[in-house]
Input
Amino acid sequence: MVGAPLATVSWLTSVMSGFLVLSVIVYVLTRVWTVVSYMQETMLVYQVVRQELGPLNMLVLCIRRMLEPSVLACYWVTLFAAQCWSNCLELVDKKYIIQDTDWFVQGLVAMAEICESPLLLISFCVVVMMVSCAALILTQSLLSTCGAVAGAGQPLLQSGVTEGVVAFVLGLQTGLTDMPMPGRVGALSIILFVVVASLLQSCLEITHPVLLSLPATNRRLVRHLVPLLLTISLLLLPLGMVYALLTKVSSDLWTLVIISSCLVTAVQAMGSLATYILFVWDSLLTVPSPYMDDYVYYVKAVTRGVELLLALAVVCGGFYESVALDREWSMLNTLVLVSHCYFNIYSRISQGWALYLARRETSKRLSSLHTATTTELATHGDVCSICYQDMESPTAVVTLCSHFFHKNCLKRWLVVQDNCPLCTKAIVAEEVKVEDVPVDTVERDDESDLAEESVDDVIEDAVVADNNKVDSPVLNVEELNEEPQLRQRHVGDGESVSHLFDGD
Output
């Protein structure tokens, strides 16, 4: 149509518009009888419901049907499409001007303009929940193509509920429906950034175990491509969000929280990639590295350390905003900082310190075990029961129950529990001082040992007596008295004697 006369273009436009209108009219006329039949059937159904339940219960049922998530989502999508159409054609004069003409900003403006009532806010949260659920299901479907079970044991139907609830709570806390335009655009953008950050974190939680399991379950590197690309995307997308926040959104406490959440997701994705590279390297070795557990621990320690620094940065930024800049401070900001201090600072420090103490105590306890010699390993003639690999002299130890293991395998086992994997006895004996044990406890232990020895003697003598006197099952009192080691018990005045186990 380049170079065509203006009259020709106008005539073609009129023809196409007329053809479109005629097509719509013909389609509507062909569907009129279907619509009428459906309305008649619906009226009959509601008449039966009104007769069975009554007018009030029928009204409650209609309201519940109107508030179904699918109905609310369809209602919000229809309003959003109509608002976008109105903004594109400039059908309504506005009292404000949005200078940015990007499609993302225009879509955000349309979302903010229709969030005018609590019902529309609930509809918006339902749409957020459905979109989040679709994104998580898509992630799991992509991960299932590599032969691994993505998100095993997780309820798919409830995926995305977290993002929907977060959007609803933040909408109520910020008073989104009562804000005038264009201030509502900024609040809605912050809410969407929080929801997207939470969604990316959920996707990473699904991708992380699948990515780390592939080096051991599937040696074909082509199958690793999808989880690897997903992890790289979950590394780059939060960084892009941080750049957008720093360049287009004003800096405040909520911005710091979102930036911290995005950077934590990026750091965790980077840690997953580093751990994956270590696992791939270890799977390519002829003999697995004995220090792989330490390498993975160092990667996790660095990742958790960076997460802790980011959490501290958020707290320091919040206090700087409230004290130095003398900005308005609310109870919501205080609640955000307190929860952030507990969940992201105190919990990380306590968990990290507990893990460090457990590893230090494990190393200390392993140093007390005997290192297996070449002769002992040759006599043993078996593999490690934990990793099923051959054992060599410097790297194998012997437990107190005389079982042989790799030192590094046993180190990982001791972090979980203290008992031997084979016989469930204590791997390392606990040191108990003699002076700390009460005297009566020692006496009771001696008596119990004597009792056990006496019982063993009685059983042994009884077996010998049975072998020697098969023909005489009843023993005389004189014969019993001649055996000093056989313990007897007297009944009554001491005249009758019975065996120790008679009547038991």
Notes: The chain has 15 helices and five strands.
